[in-house]
Amino acid sequence: MWSPDGSNIAFGGGDLLDSLFQKPASGAGEEKVLLSEPGVIHAPTEYSHDGRFLLYYSSDATGAPLAQFVLPLDGSKKPITLVNPPGFGAGQGRLSPDMRWIAYVSTESGRREIYVRPFNANGPSLGEGKWQISRDGGSLPAWRADGKELFFRGPTGIMSAAVKAVGSAFEASAPERLFELGSDGGWDVAADGKRFLVSLANAQQNGQVPITVILNWQQMLKK
Length: 223
Description:
Blueprint: E1 8-13, E2 19-24, E3 32-36, E4 41-47, E5 53-59, E6 65-72, E7 80-83, E8 90-95, E9 101-106, E10 113-120, E11 125-126, E12 131-132, E13 139-143, E14 149-153, E15 157-166, E16 169-172, E17 176-180, E18 187-189, E19 196-198, H1 218-221
């Protein structure tokens, strides 16, 4: 994950991905250990927009989220638990651009769904209220830069919901599918929400694979 000023990158590492590291984006110097807990897999999801803390979640060996945390990067530097539903999992947290809300994944309904809750950056902590955004399953939420749209991965593709804050409440439209995308491969969205970067397996790529014919190839061997 990139730091807000682009100077650092945070990542999970170690033999069992049980540590969080930070390293200059230039690649120079050694990485700095931010957190290490043997036997627990850590996955960073985002720096706060003011750079004061790092969002990450713990997961099991399959990558299923267990609990969502905030790691202060100054002061105590001790993890703060944000979401840890008893008997279920939570993670993949992403903050709204104004840092008033956090979108995350929870399995409390029996499957992965996207929820939004109020976020207090001064805690950091969660406020009262919770709103379910996805309807048929979801993961990997991402906000548009103006905070008016929330993207996530649905069962058959990338979904979008128009969102807005109304006082202390949160409203979201019914999610709509933007385009199909299989269960494999990563994705991200540009800040303006108009372009997506996706990785696809060969079987998912649209169109035919072109055939290249090289004529007089023997002449190339003489070079």
